[in-house]
Design goal:
The protein has 394 residues and is an alpha/beta fold. It contains 13 helices and 14 strands.
């Protein structure tokens, strides 16, 4: 099969699920519907996503189906056992997880904490609970400054997070603690990520996390999309937290982006560069700022903001580029708690040389995305079913 597209730009709208999966009740997520509930909260203006075919995937309040969508549309099933960032992104690259990464809804057991205290040579830890990162530094930051004890916390994700004030625990020392935690958290305790969460400020009223966050992820299995592309001599340009999710495996360029606006800017920079292969971006704010914090209005505004930025992305695309928009899981801001939600994710695909208006249906796995990218470049992923041929103009 001849190659159709010179580049693929894959943008993940982190947590933008589009309705509960059949097994949602097994995860405590019956009734979850991230985009559906946001759209129902008020009139959310998404003209560009509507034109691409967002409303053609399923009925959404205020987002009618387009009679002539500019893109092709469908939704993807999360086939893996999980509903977290690593699970969703790895599945896109062809990795199907049969066993979920461990989570710690009651905090980490003494065997982990005691070993961390001993090996990291710290005077103890504060917290050790599931928490919002911004809230826990408000609650425990002043005590951390007094005692020098790092703040350890987790979340609904499979993560071990360490927060420390940069003037109390220097950055290099915090990173060293994280590396120690990463070594300890193995076997049955192999969490998806260990994350350094440094902050600054003098009191709870003005503590603020800095941009020196660093993730220590579990390395993915080597047989996945990113090294497959890299080994074939193609570019794998990652924007935002993508590189850290894959532990930089198969990444040829890592463009730093700390929020949605920076991700859009860096994605456009990558599109304007002379590259061939994959541009892979993550829009982190949807999940981090609005889903977990159950901020429906903030999520709606962020979606509207991204919609206004889409024309700039379209303008930066070459004639032979293909754009894929999707998500990694759900995080319904109207739902109870602060956990991710087990949902289908949207699939929108467009390009100047791609066939528009194709109903791609309900895909069996997010790995279908990776299989499509691989087939486009004459490669075989080994997981998922490609929808590349459906995009060919006749």
């Amino acid at each position: 099969m001849s190659q159709r597209f010179g580049r693929v730009c894959l943008i993940v709208l982190d947590s933008a699920g589009i309705g509960e999966m059949p097994d949602a009740a097994d995860w405590g997520d019956a009734g979850a519907d991230t985009l559906g509930h946001i759209m129902a909260s008020r009139n959310v203006a998404l003209p560009n996503l509507q034109k691409m075919g967002l409303g053609n995937i399923r009925p959404l309040a205020g987002v009618p189906a387009s009679d002539a969508p500019s893109g092709s549309y469908g939704k993807c099933t999360l086939r893996s056992n999980g509903k977290d960032t690593t699970t969703g992104h790895w599945e896109m690259a062809g990795i199907i997880l049969e066993k979920a990464f461990p989570t710690y809804p009651n905090g980490f057991p003494p065997r982990i904490i005691n070993e961390f205290v001993a090996q990291a040579k710290v005077p103890g830890v504060l917290g050790n609970v599931p928490a919002s990162g911004t809230e826990i530094i408000k609650e425990l930051g002043e005590e951390h400054i007094r005692t020098g004890k790092p703040i350890v916390y987790t979340s609904a994700d499979s993560v071990f997070q360490i927060a420390a004030h940069e003037e109390v625990v220097p950055i290099d020392r915090l990173y060293e603690m994280c590396e120690i935690a990463r070594r300890i958290l193995d076997g049955e305790d192999k969490v998806g990520r260990v994350i350094a969460r440094p902050f600054l400020g003098s009191t709870a009223a003005n503590f603020k996390r800095t941009e020196n966050r660093h993730d220590y992820a579990v390395p993915p299995p080597p047989a996945n999309l990113l090294p497959l592309l890299k080994d074939a001599g193609l570019d794998v340009v990652c924007v935002g937290k993508i590189a850290s999710i894959y532990d930089s495996t198969g990444v040829t360029e890592d463009l730093i982006a700390k929020n949605n606006d920076q991700t859009v800017e860096q994605t456009i920079n990558a599109l304007n560069a002379d590259t061939k292969g994959l541009i892979f971006s993550n829009m982190v704010d949807f999940d981090m700022l609005y889903g977990h914090r159950r901020d429906t209005e903030g999520y709606a505004r962020a979606l509207e903001r991204f919609d206004t930025q889409l024309p700039a992305i379209f303008d930066a695309m070459r004639d032979d580029d293909l754009l894929i928009l999707t998500a990694d899981h759900g995080n319904d801001p109207t739902f109870r708690g602060s956990d991710h939600t087990r949902e289908y994710v949207p699939l929108l695909v467009c390009g100047k040389n791609a066939k528009p208006g194709v109903d791609l249906g309900t895909r069996g796995s997010l790995a279908d995305i990776g299989a499509t990218v691989a087939e486009n470049f004459g490669l075989a992923l080994g997981a998922g079913e490609s929808f590349l041929q459906a995009l060919y103009r006749t």
